[in-house]
């Protein structure tokens, strides 16, 4: 902001779309950062007066390209410079006005309707597109390191372990990942293969993260958390965008995107190619590391305003990956097969808005996924067909109700595995869930959120979910909430029929077809506050109690000499504290950080078991700084600490690997030019050491995360 000329330079185009028209789409919200104008005291009143007076006086030039239905509230869109009239304010009074104070983050993941994040009784965080850009992330898991309570381990180039509140592992079945409300959950092993789906950082608007159960809203597998990746509206990417970058170990990424707006239609096409020679060291005497990675991704996203009350959305994507899943020694001696995958999805959504408080949404999608991680016995393909309906309405001023029905069918084909993966070639199942949620504001500063859900799965039968949360606004800038929840993780149909030969057939992994669902009772207490208009803090305390946990336990064969059997044998408790804070020291400098303490107590009926899970790091923190000495130069640094963990050892499944604690320092410098249509950035990741382990899994080979130096260039042609 140029204080000397008393000119407000608006941020990058940030349209605020009508709540009734565009913002009430669960999982597919309008893309730009919002600038909602609420009553926030005298500063906001002055800011509104400044803008309004400028318009009336003809001293404000605002170019807009509003879409039908937009215009509710105050909108600053595609603005150049807004010259303020002389209202008799002193320079110091004028400089005290910070338009960023008008920004109130909104989220949709908690209840499938738009809410201010300060009113959501969940431990919830939002990672914006600017956060992703400033931290120098090369992937979505990299960006999630900014979130407290989220554990991220780099296992190979293209493979990550991501978890919330324990059960940290490569295929974490307790965490549900969504993309615009579409589930990305493996039908056979569960979890999410992050590097194998068409996820492009350039197209992401924000990432909403719920730490804790989301079972009422999203059903099975939303046990420890929900991550919803929300993509940009094509209108916020109009024109041609080209970016390229490269760094150590032969890593490079090229991205091209093009978006248009023609009347009621908004359309984006995007594609990228990523390649790397892989990480520096790893593997064992049984098998050397081979994690060379090549991936091509393409997607299309279209939004059509079908009428004054209807919005149609269509998106589709495909990714083709070569490598990324280095074969584990457990796949066998002298067994060689290149790993790879192909993923395709199609999503359609119809949103009907009768009024601001009456919204209908119908979503259907198809996921088609095929993967071979380099072990001949593990080669499978699945299709998921899903249909979701939700309805939000307000029967009175004090109640906001959302109800809906979710259905999904999973079809698994294991015929490509050699000699076999499942005890039958084809496995299928279906699940249907009915839910209802009510936010009841029974007093001016009190709210009671109640939710219930019932799911039925063909093999697992009926499973309930429930949540009750009481929240209280202590003041205009502080609130507290307490919640109790029940959620469940339904074993996938594929896991019920697993029969995998490992170590050249010397051992087999088998399963109990009648395995029960894992259940969770969770207790949580949270506090949010804003201090002195500059410091935001969030504190969460939680206790999770699990029953019917599944493990792999060894026994003498047949089949093979040793049989690792999948069944319900354990219980656990996970408890901890999460704290994060953001301090805006000045318009140029922001400090941020978070700290997490977590502890797991595990009890099993079997003295020997394997979970393919890492122990959660007991202590973890991040401290960061973002500094812009000029309007065009942006500097950032993020220091991460992760405590020691025990991880699965692919070279010896009976003895875990002890992973030492580590520090990781990431630095980034970015310079904008050509009226902010181009940006050049250079940075380094993991500056403090040459390489280190972050975890492990039985499914892929060991790899150490190396230090990397990188540069990137981004150009936009509107």
Characteristics of this structure?
718 residues; mainly beta; 22-stranded antiparallel beta barrel
Approximate strand percentage: over 45%
**SS-based structural class?**
mainly beta
Compute the separation of the termini in Å. 23 Å
Helical amount among residues, as a percent range?
under 10%
Count of DSSP helices?
Answer: 7
Q: What average pLDDT do the residues reach? A: 85
Bulk shape: globular
Largest sheet: 22 strands, antiparallel, barrel
The parts where pLDDT drops under 50 for at least 5 residues are 1-102
CA gyration radius, whole angstroms:
25 Å
E-strand count = 40
The multimeric state of the shown protein is single chain
